[in-house]
Amino acid sequence: MINIKNLTKKFDKIRAVDNVSLNIQEGEVFGLLGQNGAGKTTIIHMLATLLKPTSGTALINGYDIIKNASKVRKNIGIVFQAPSSDDMLTGFENLKIHSYLYGVPSELRVKRINELLKLVGLYERKDDIVKKYSGGMRRRLEIGRGLIHKPKVMFLDEPTLGLDPNSRKSMWEYIQKLVKEEKITIILTTHYMEEADTLCDRIGFINKGKIIAIDTPQQLKLMVKNNNNNNNTDKYIGDIIGLHFKVTEEINSQDNNNNNSPILTKNIEILKSFKFVKKVEQKRESENKDLVLILYVDNINYNLPIILKSIDNVEYIEFSQPTLDDVFYTFTKGRIAEEPEGGFMERYAQYDKK
Amino acid sequence: MTLNQILNSKFINNFLSVYAIWLREFKVYLRERSRLVGSLFTPLLWLFIVGSGIGSSTTLSIDVNYQKFIFPGIISMSIIFTSVFYGAYIIWDRKFDFLKSVMVAPISRETIFIGKTLGGMTNSLIQVFMLLIIGLFIGIEYSVISILQIMFVAVILSFLLTALGLGLGSRMHSLEGFQMIVTFVVFPLFFLSGALYPLDNLPDWLLFLTFIDPATYAVDALRNSTLGIATYSFGFDLLLLFCSAIITTLFGMLSFRKMRAV
User: Fold this and answer.
1) pTM for the structure as a whole
2) Which residues pair with A20 in a beta bridge?
3) Residue A109 and residue B148: Cα distance in Å, rounded?
4) pLDDT digits (tens, 9 = 90+) for A260-316
5) Collapsed DSSP state (helix, strand, coil) of residue A250
6) Which among A101, A143, A352 is the top mutation candidate for probing chain B, defined by the most B β-carbons within 10 Å of its own β-carbon?
7) Domain A239-321 has CATH 3.30.70
8) Residues of B with CB under 8 A from a CB of A
9) Is 3.20.20.80 the CATH number for A2-222+334-352?
């Protein structure tokens, strides 16, 4: 559906997008992640024909973004970072104006607008002026507007930026509904890893205009573990289990030479015998406190039951799995966004609106 | 061709796109009450304060009171300010993403330009209409012909100036550009138009400057049809307005085509 070939954009001397090539399948939800100024929005603007590439090109539904811009525009819908609906018009009027701009056939116009307003949950408020909408409602209106001409591809540029957690969740639900009901291909950019994890089939990490990693969210998380497996557990971001044992004399006591109790020693031996356990550490928070064993393991979902079956006397456990946040930190380690944030006014505009 | 085929033809679609952009501008204008009131108040200040103030100590070589004399000039002023501001407002539009959503639609830049220009023109014409009514209170007399003439001149002048404003605005990238346009375009257009003084006894250099200001011909034509006072013939005024409008329209369209979307 989308074939990006060596896409490059230079601003003065900075390569905002550097030789990006990428294929996105029909019906796929693709996430573009990266720091501010990494080039996400620039890629979207080029794909949406708003910006001419310095070199390279892309095909959307078979149409070239440079040679066939008008055809491309008929095939795409876009939601910008800052709401671009007219806040002096009602939701219905906004969609109506765009139905004219996109040449929606006259006999379908009102039907389509009402369908979309229902899809994004704004039908009851369709005759209210957009000024009276909340931030989340405005974004949903934009999504509805972007769908007016039944596009094949939808670009969502930070669709939940500045929304509260509830609106964000409901936005996700609308996007998922959209994927199911309208069967369109989506490229979305976001700073929220949880969002990318929830919505995206595949994720591309961008740094300084280059795609540095591309895979499913699950694979990316594994990748981080493998990257850090070189016996350097300080940097190990894999699955971590903390085993807290029952506070009994039998287990907790140590002899005069600070040796562990036989039960604990045996447990540690069992744990170390598992291939999926990478490292075992023991920790006692203070005198007379219970002992904690910290395990670094692979694939916690399958292996935790095995661990619990084979050792006794566990009181309770704690565990953590790497999130996309960790993936993000790994890929962008030490690279704090240095580029100026171009969209200040765009961000400003969002908070300035009454 | 069936009715549906006609309704969905390319021509109709282009027409509807222009209509859509115009409709947006028109509705926004009607709903922005404060802008409407504000834009009408300035001409009234000029007409009643400056008109009465200067009029009380000035005698014109022609037999007409000063307030009446500047009335056609104030109509032009209202058109100059509204139209150029409206056009230059596109700098804001671009800062705040409104325009992006239109520019990503499968319509040509020319279509956007025409829709916007018609929107600005409508705003100006509504104001002209209200000023015409106020004219009744200062003793201006209209005939059907003079009303038609006034509206015709107003249509051309507002189209011309909105196109100019849009053209300039689309080339500016910062809000400071707006101030530049006000200082170097709006005020000179107004002051050089002869809105506030007769063209008869001007020094040569000033006469020359009024000559290259298209608003001069609008003021002259309006004065001709409201007061029967004129420096040039009505036909000559229209011809020059028309030529200027073609130039600014071409300039505006070219600028729009070149305008960066993001």
Assistant:
1) 0.80
2) A7
3) 38
4) 777 778 888 888 888 888 778 777 766 666 678 888 887 788 888 888 888 877 888
5) helix
6) A101
7) yes
8) 4, 7-8, 13, 16-17, 19-21, 23-24, 27-28, 31-32, 95-98, 100-107, 260-262
9) no
